[in-house]
Here is the input.
Amino acid sequence: MSQDLGRDRERERGRFSARERAEAAFADSVRAGGGSLSRVRQELFALSDLLRREPRLRKTLADIGVPAEAKEALVGGLLRPRLDARTLALFQDLVGEDSVNHRLRAVLQDLGVQALLAEADAQGTLGDVADRLFRFSRVVESQAALRSAFTNPVLPEENKRALVRDLLAGRAPEQAVLLAEWAVVRVGDPVQHLAELADRAAERRHRVVAEARTAVPLDDDRVRRLSEALERVAGRPVDVEVVVDPSVVGGVVARVGDEVIDGTVRRKLDLALAQLTA
Here is the structure.
């Protein structure tokens, strides 16, 4: 009862957050144990697929003329025997909320991703998930044939997912594999999607991913010192991902979010040349 009153107050104040509401369901699932969170995650993606297959249901749930109570009763009657109680309660909250029910499929996908991150967090593998996603994004970026396969609209989604499993299964946490599969079947650039997921995983740990490009590999001491310097720039702990890039002539080019810190020899030469020719 108190949870219902809290959500009603959120809606009255215009502060309803699907992600915050989902986190409460995930935390409850973790406490319940027995794979409850994994089931909730699977059901969120399954509900998104259901709405794709059933346009009439999707249209009804998005109709602002249908009262929230009627929508919640509809999905309760249809899905209560099939869903975990936490999934059903979360879904009913979403269909009853005007700010999200017109984009339910996208919201359910987003919460499915969040559930995967919550799973990794609960298992203590979230840092590894972020690292694997970032590294896979660099692999896809560097291999034109692989990137072309993932962006090919003719190649079936299952083929793309199978390709990810061939490359990552057994080498990365399960959640990293599933997130990578999700990223490569989305419309758009898979490299960007993978990098965004890595950032989101780091953000959940209150950290930020910093990409450092150097001409040669860095030893542990240099990585540590670079990490400390980038933390001062970012204002929070960073996960440094070193990318060996022969085009970098000495020094380091680092990217923290949208900010680029260029300390390479080439950059210094370019600046000196610009001053001489000004």
